[in-house]
Amino acid sequence: MMDGAAILDAPLLSARGITHSYGARIGCRDIDFDLWPGEVLGVVGESGSGKTTLLNCLSAQMMPSSGKLTYRLRTGDQADVYALTEAERRMLMRTDWGFVHQNPRDGLRMGVSAGANVGERLMAVGARHYGAIRDQVTDWLGRVEMDLERIDDLPSQFSGGMQQRVQIARNLVSGPRLVFMDEPTGGLDVSVQARLLDLLRGLTNDLGLSAVIVTHDLAVARLLSHRLMVMRRGEVVEQGLTDQVLDDPQHAYTQLLVSSVLQT
Amino acid sequence: MTQARTMTDGGYNFAYLDEQTKRMIRRAILKAVAIPGHQVPFGSREMPLPYGWGTGGIQVTASIIGLADVLKVIDQGADDTTNAVSIRRFFARTAGVATTQATEAATIIQTRHRIPETVLKDDQIIVYQVPIPEPLRWLEPREAETRKMHGLADYGVMHVKLYEDIATYGHIETSYDYPVLVNGRYLTAPSPIPKFDNPKMHEMAALQLFGAGREKRIYAIPPYTRVESLDFEDHPFAAQTWDARCAICGAGDSFLDEVITDDHGGSMFVCSDTDHCGRRVADGHRGDGE
Fold first, then answer.
1. Which pLDDT score is estimated for B290?
2. In whole angstroms, what is the distance from residue B87 CA to residue B57 CA?
3. pLDDT of A1 above 70
4. Are B253 and B266 in contact (CB under 8 A)?
């Protein structure tokens, strides 16, 4: 049996040597990191640096060419994510994990209402009481500051920012412990972005969520993440605490990245 | 005498299909019966009628029919509609089998859109004509994904559709092809029968075979198999009901069709099952419509 201290001491997600290549081309190479409960890890880098490939591997949407990914289940058991059966992986994806896509259209069912989108996970794991599902959906749409009158409207009738809120609610309704986000504020205008970031920061704090956030926007990374990984050409060139990396970049590429942002 | 003539003068094999094709279809049927509700692919043939008119059902019937069988064919409950008449005549000519309109006299009943009101017995087989065999099709367009969902019994999305019904209409609006779970395992499309007929599928004594010709799938529900219609705890499954009774036979417990009688908004409700209605009239029941 595992004692309590050992459970607390174990990271939630642990990646070792994650490597993925598309034929001769490298997607990402030898990525190692530990993600601890309640921690938000940012992954930054320019386009084509392998951020999204890495995120897809970490969220088991893609099998990497090599590497090992260990996830600590609620029971305290360590699960080898790539060795799980398809059924177990799907269960994990819709209960303990969430995935927020950059484009809400990839993460939402555009043909059904916002309410049905948020309730889908509940129904997928066996909720069969309409009233109870409806209550939870309403609660979550409220938490992401959606206008509750629009619960039965189609996502295609929503603005980009609202769609993104529905997508976030849809992922968080099952009370996940780990959320992957791919450019969650990409394509939104700055004021909507700011409110969404505020919301995300509040939610991750309140719920004690762990998250891996991929972004090319250093401001997003600074605001949301505790720790930062800088990627270039599929490899991690620098990692550390967010403030440390951004305020005192060591690697030449990180220095370039930081200095490319307009300083005010 | 009549049999021999009709079977030979068209130049066709018994029941139109060649023996190898029938064997192939029978294998698919056996597999389908062994895995209740699971869709089994089969090499659907071109039939001398268009897709959508019952090419799947007719192939299943052709593979199971024998000289001793008595065939009944119904379309929307009626024995006398074009589709029913022509399929019945097709088998009378190519197999020389006896046909009937009486439900209890039939050994094989091929149907489109209805299950007869008369309770079926364990020596009967009902063959459904199915347009879209995949209940998840409108929710998930990818065939590879729906197969995976069936494999993993990953059916949450079907409830999303029912949720959407309740959110929009206040009740489950789906009224035909209402999804069922067969034997607690496979989500299955009951073909476009009204949900009024869903309860009849549960623990039915007769063997139920489903053929989809265009989609090339066969599935089955063996006799006395559990068939549950999906629902929510606080919005349980309910069949349609009518305020009216049948205008011809006065039945209050059968599936009624509304028939327009004039162009001034006049209409009447009559049993969709013509055999059931006719028998009740013969027994002396009368409606108040005539």
1. 55
2. 10
3. no
4. no
